[in-house]
Give the backbone structure.
Amino acid sequence: ARDLPVGFKTNLNKEMTFETFVEGKSNQLAKAACLSVIKEPGILNPLYIYGGVGLGKTHLLHSIGNQLSSENKKVVYLHSEKFVQNMVTALRNNQMEEFKKFYRNLDVLLLDDMQFFAGKERSQEEFFHTFNALLDKGSQIIVSADRAPNKLSRIQERIKSRFSGGLVVDIQKPDYELRKKIVSNKLEELDNLHPNQIKISKDIQDFISTEISASIR
């Protein structure tokens, strides 16, 4: 295994793993696609995951990142706004060459909330070239967004076309069974942290599982 550069930051949340991801009918396909990416990075490229707020897209991105970074790959997780900020800083400080070199030499790029690139032409231009450079060297790209590629507004057609050329999977709203499973898992976590301190009746668990139907978060 090769050494990662000194000061290299993955920006990964170590607690978001496949082990802590609760699977159900609504996210099965997305999880299966992520596991395929881990087995053979670069085969399903790019992997594009979309769905509403709080349905687990970010958790899956971090899960892939944590798994692949443990194999000593150069992995970076980024919110798309952060990519824009980093690029603006590089432009201001005359460091675009360093910026390009850093992003184009990654093994895995995880980019969250692609919809925030809307209307940012210069950033889209740079992302497009980074994207192509990574594809050319066989690196894995995983992108998340709140809607399908063809529904992204004020994003260049060539970028949307690139996304559609890979594997596109969506995450649906969780059904009652999955919501119940998540409530139960959360209570187990709390009980491990604070043994015998938190008691929530079955009726309240059922009420939460029934009433909160849109966002897992």
